[in-house]
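Hi all, posting the design record for the shared folder.

TITLE: backbone redesign
STEP: 1 of 1
STRUCTURE INPUT:
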């Protein structure tokens, strides 16, 4: 019955968590002709979406309005779960202060929806987590409801693979990994995502799907950690690491270029490796390689601040009391996503050491409310007078909207953490 409803597009899709993962997914199902009901605990976000307004920079409001016109609606009433045939969970999975997995959003979501689960539904978890979460955390809620997984209820794990700001890939074109709690669950998961995603990649279990997501991001974390360490070595040797990377990238096999920066940002790469590190302890294993890469990337903001301090000292200025302008505080180019942004860590270290810190970011006009970071700041305009007024300007996120020529012309001192300036300008210090 469920498979028939999905194939005929008569099934109703429920998206739980309307953020950077949930909204693109809702758009894709709506575009494919499904009725979508979105759930979120943020009343303001619900109201904005129902009014056709987009809370995410790279998703135009016109797309949200079109989705609403097509039958989409958002709600904070989780008692409406029986209305949907597919329940897709896209809630955050952060780390605790002790760098251990925090599944509180998943658990609270399951506690809220469990009384409303019914036969004939499929439940898919997309949040990144440790191998075993679907079986060990989600399945007991379903079992206690008296539903039989694989017969009258279907449980799958399908990790999100969004890349905000990347115009080359969309939700539809990024292959979707799906693992089921049973073979029948996997078939249901393939059916659900197969109607909206160009390629579905089935794996043998939810655990395999969960570990796939971790491997993808650990791969990036380790390679970025390597190139960040190479950057420090090259800097000490007086060698331009970007020249080295560009030269190495000409090798047509056995090398993939990764680029250094002020640290790791986004919800996935700085966090996901520690999910596996935590779970590996259960099996008596230590993830030395993964943890070392994490430590290197974690230390990058401190290294950047050291370069700023040294550059100011070379100009007979102290860090304390200096006016510093941070360019770009989103975690990656051309997005407004602030999650785990290393730019914020750099700003905090500078502030704590007595610098007077401002920022400019065309995608973040006002510093947002964050769980662990607080700045009462607004983005400043990059006029010549503004740029000249700062003792140092620090390029942290290389947004396309920045006028890099004007920045180099008017900044007294320019700290470049992204390799944007290669022409030997004496005002530029590479970090």
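Okay, here is what came back for every position:
SEQUENCE:
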């Amino acid at each position: 019955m469920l498979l028939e409803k999905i194939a005929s597009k008569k099934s109703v899709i429920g998206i739980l968590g309307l953020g950077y993962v949930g909204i693109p997914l809702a758009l894709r199902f709506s575009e494919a002709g499904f009725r979508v009901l979105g759930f979120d605990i943020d009343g303001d976000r619900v109201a904005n979406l129902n009014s056709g307004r987009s809370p995410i920079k790279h998703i135009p409001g016109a797309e949200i309005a079109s989705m609403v016109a097509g039958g989409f609606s958002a709600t904070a009433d989780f008692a409406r779960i029986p209305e949907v045939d597919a329940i897709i969970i896209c809630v955050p999975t952060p780390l605790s202060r002790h760098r251990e997995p925090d599944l509180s959003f998943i658990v609270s979501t399951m506690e809220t929806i469990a009384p409303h689960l019914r036969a004939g539904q499929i439940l898919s978890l997309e949040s990144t987590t440790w191998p075993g979460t679907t079986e060990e955390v989600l399945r007991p809620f379903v079992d206690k409801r008296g539903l039989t997984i694989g017969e009258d209820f279907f449980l799958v794990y399908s990790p999100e693979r969004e890349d905000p700001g990347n115009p080359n890939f969309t939700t539809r074109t990024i292959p979707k990994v799906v693992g089921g709690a049973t073979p029948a669950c996997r078939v249901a998961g393939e059916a659900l995502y197969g109607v909206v995603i160009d390629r579905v990649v089935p794996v043998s279990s939810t655990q395999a799907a969960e570990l796939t997501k971790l491997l993808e991001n650990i791969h990036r974390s380790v390679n970025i950690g390597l190139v960040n360490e190479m950057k420090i070595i090259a800097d000490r040797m007086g060698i331009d690491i970007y020249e080295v990377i560009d030269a190495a990238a000409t090798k047509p096999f056995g090398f993939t270029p990764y680029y250094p920066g002020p640290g790791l940002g986004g919800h996935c790469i700085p966090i996901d490796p520690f999910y596996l590190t935590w779970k590996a302890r259960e099996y008596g294993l230590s993830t030395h390689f993964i943890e070392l890469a994490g430590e290197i990337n974690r230390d990058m903001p401190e290294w950047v601040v050291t370069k700023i301090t040294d550059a100011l000292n070379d100009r007979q200025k102290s860090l304390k009391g200096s006016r510093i302008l941070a360019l770009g505080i989103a975690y990656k180019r051309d997005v407004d996503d602030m999650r785990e942004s290393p730019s914020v860590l750099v700003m905090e270290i500078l502030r704590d050491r007595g610098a007077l810190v401002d920022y400019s970011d065309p995608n973040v006009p006002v510093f947002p409310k964050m769980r662990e970071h607080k700045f009462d700041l607004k983005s400043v305009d990059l006029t010549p007078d503004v740029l000249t007024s700062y003792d140092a300007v620090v390029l942290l996120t290389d947004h396309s909207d920045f006028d890099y020529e004007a920045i180099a012309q008017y900044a007294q001192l320019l700290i470049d953490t992204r390799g944007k300036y290669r022409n030997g300008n004496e005002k530029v210090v590479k970090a």
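COMMENT: Residues 206-237 form the longest helix (32 residues).
Let me know if anyone wants the other runs.
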